[in-house]
Write a structure and sequence with these properties.
37% of the residues lie in helices and 19% in strands. It is of the alpha/beta class. The chain binds adenosine monophosphate.
Length: 276
């Protein structure tokens, strides 16, 4: 992959990169389409990264369907599919990790302490291997986007980070490879997550700037479901990811709910007062 990228760069090609863990859905494909628009050659990686899973998490059961993914990726404009082996990326004796401090220990990082360390490490490795000019990430995992932007800035990676909007099912549920874990009852209630966010977004547009009020409104809305358990509902600054009391700049309303039956964690967010 490194040799291929070097040849592409030498011949003046712009490389666009989309990292994924596979089990591709339309969200991943929209990132691929965005990468195609910004580059001459698109590289998609499929790698279920062990470093971003805690021992009790779903690394072993995470859906893997390489043949199907490969066919879809090719059909949708992926030029190079990078599918590395685990023992090549993390051979025995592997010791080096990259951490973006503070940002990685709040919100998702508070619930999953080593998660972002695993994400920034693998993205850093991929940037060194694929040497992309641009890399596309999804807004659905917005804390990840903010952390990667910070890493790119702090470590001077010559890579432009492009954020693609969240792709949703027809009823508003954000697409996720983990949605397959949902029971029927959970799947029925899951769209409430986005509806609650849209309600708060409308209240913001009507002039509400108090984050306490917006959060209360979402909490009340979610209380209609006996199967969605909010883990956190917060309003954060879109750059620092720090909580804000009154919205005065572009902010993100971020929610995570855990479902009662399958214990799946569902993430979603909307932007208010600007763009990401
Ligand atoms: P994953 O395979 O879950 O690690 O995700 C790979 C990339 O796809 C990440 O940048 C995610 O943010 C992005 N992604 C996942 N789901 C969606 C979605 N519904 N809409 C847009 N991007 C997504």
């Amino acid at each position: 992959m490194q040799q291929t990228s070097e040849q592409l760069r030498t011949s003046g090609k712009r490389i666009g990169f989309v990292p994924t863990m596979g089990a591709l859905h339309d969200g991943h494909l929209s990132l691929l389409h965005t990468a195609c628009q910004h580059s001459d050659v698109t590289v998609m990686s499929i790698f279920v990264n062990p470093a971003q899973f805690a021992p009790h998490e779903d690394f072993n059961t995470y859906p893997r369907m390489f043949e199907k993914d490969a066919a879809v990726a090719r059909e949708q404009g992926c030029d190079i599919l990078f599918y590395p082996k685990e023992d090549v990326l993390y051979p025995q004796g592997y010791k080096t990790f990259v951490t973006v401090e503070d940002l990685s220990s709040a919100f998702e990082g508070a619930v999953r302490p080593s998660h972002f360390r695993g994400v920034t490490t693998i993205v850093c490795k991929f940037f060194n291997i694929v040497a992309p000019h641009i890399a596309v990430f999804g807004q659905k995992d917005v804390q990840q986007v903010i952390i990667i932007r910070k890493m790119v800035h702090d470590l001077h990676f010559p890579v432009r980070i492009v954020v693609a909007p969240t792709v949703r099912e027809h009823d508003g549920l954000a697409m996720s490879s983990r949605n397959v874990y949902l029971t029927e009852k959970e799947r029925n209630d899951a769209p409430l997550m986005y509806q609650g966010l849209l309600k708060a977004q409308k209240e913001y547009e009507a002039g509400q700037r108090s984050t306490q009020k917006l959060i209360q409104s979402i909490e009340t809305f979610y209380a209609q479901s006996d199967i969605l358990e909010p883990e956190y509902i917060s309003v954060v600054d879109s750059k620092s990811f720090e909580t804000v009391k009154t919205i005065t700049a572009t902010a993100l309303i971020v929610v995570v709910c855990r479902t009662k039956e399958s214990r799946t964690r569902l993430l979603d967010n909307v932007v208010v007062g600007g763009a990401l």
